[in-house]
Design goal:
InterPro entries: Longin-like_dom_sf, Longin_dom, Sec22, V_SNARE_CC
Protein name: Protein transport protein SEC22
Low-confidence stretches: 165-171
Structural class: alpha+beta
Oligomer: single chain
Number of domains: 1
GO molecular function, one term: SNAP receptor activity
Keywords: Coiled coil, Endoplasmic reticulum, ER-Golgi transport, Golgi apparatus, Membrane, Protein transport, Transmembrane, Transmembrane helix, Transport
CATH superfamily: Longin domain
Strand order of the largest sheet: 2-1-5-4-3-6
Number of strands: 6
Subcellular location: Endoplasmic reticulum membrane; Golgi apparatus membrane
Length: 215
C-alpha cells in the first residue's frame, strides 16, 4: 500500500507532500528518512532506486528533470506499481509546473495544491482491481529488481551516497511508457465506474419528469 508521497527539488527544497496520518506507526520516522535520502543524492546517483527501511517499509524514489519523487510503501507492495505510480505523478507534475519549479524564489511546499492529484492517483493504486489489471497488462515489464536497492542502514551508519552501482536497462525506461498508459486507462475506468451510475440515474429522472409533464 502507498503510505506517503514527497516531492523535492534536487537542492533538497520540499515542493509538495501528500496529506497523511502521521500518527500511523512509524510513518513520521520514514518521512525523516526521506530527508536523509535526499541529502545523500548526488549527480551520479541512480535515477531510480529502492531503499529498504526497517522491517515494514520501502522508500522508492525517481529523479526526473532535477526533481526527486519519493513514495513510502509497505514492504509487501509491488515494486512495479510503486515505480508506475512515481512515473505517473512525475509526468503530471512536470506538465503542470515545469520550469516554475526551478525559480530560485520558490518557497517550501509552494506546490501543495498538487496533493489533490496525489490523492486521486493513490486511490487508483490502492484498488486491488487496479493492481491486478496493471500486473496483468504489464507482465512483460523489465525486471524491476535491476533497479538499485540499498538499505537505509547503509545511509545512516556508513554515510553512503546513492552513487551509481548498476546500469539500469534501457528496456525498463521504454516499457515504463506502456506502464503509464495502462495506469491512465485504469484511472479512466475508475472514473467511469464512479460517475456512470450517477449519469444514468439523472437521465432516468429527467425522462420520467418529461414523460409525466407531457401526459
Amino acid at each position: 500500500m502507498v503510505k506517503s508521497t514527497l516531492i523535492y527539488r534536487n537542492d533538497a527544497l520540499p515542493l509538495c507532500g501528500s496529506v497523511d496520518d502521521d500518527a500511523e506507526a512509524g510513518l513520521l520516522e520514514q518521512k525523516k528518512k526521506c530527508k536523509l535520502i535526499i541529502s545523500r543524492i548526488t549527480p551520479n546517483s541512480e535515477s531510480q532506486a529502492s531503499i529498504e527501511s526497517g522491517s515494514n517499509y520501502v522508500i522508492h524514489y525517481l529523479i526526473k528533470d532535477s526533481i526527486v519523487y519519493l513514495v513510502i510503501c509497505d514492504k509487501s507492495y509491488s515494486r512495479k506499481l510503486a515505480f508506475s505510480y512515481l512515473d505517473e505523478i512525475s509526468n503530471e507534475f512536470t506538465k503542470l509546473y515545469g520550469p516554475e519549479t526551478m525559480n530560485p524564489d520558490v518557497r517550501p511546499f509552494a506546490f501543495a495544491k498538487f496533493d489533490s492529484f496525489l490523492g486521486k492517483t493513490k486511490k487508483v493504486y490502492q484498488d486491488a482491481r487496479a493492481q491486478s489489471n496493471l500486473d496483468r497488462l504489464n507482465n512483460d515489464l523489465a525486471d524491476v529488481k535491476k533497479v538499485m536497492t540499498k538499505n537505509i542502514e547503509d545511509l545512516l551508519y556508513r554515510g553512503d551516497s546513492l552513487d551509481k552501482m548498476t546500469d539500469l536497462s534501457s528496456s525498463l525506461r521504454a516499457e515504463s511508457k506502456k506502464y503509464r498508459k495502462s495506469a491512465q486507462k485504469i484511472n479512466f475506468d475508475a472514473m467511469i465506474r464512479q460517475y456512470v451510475p450517477i449519469a444514468c440515474a439523472s437521465f432516468i429522472f429527467v425522462f420520467l419528469l418529461w414523460y409525466t409533464l407531457l401526459r
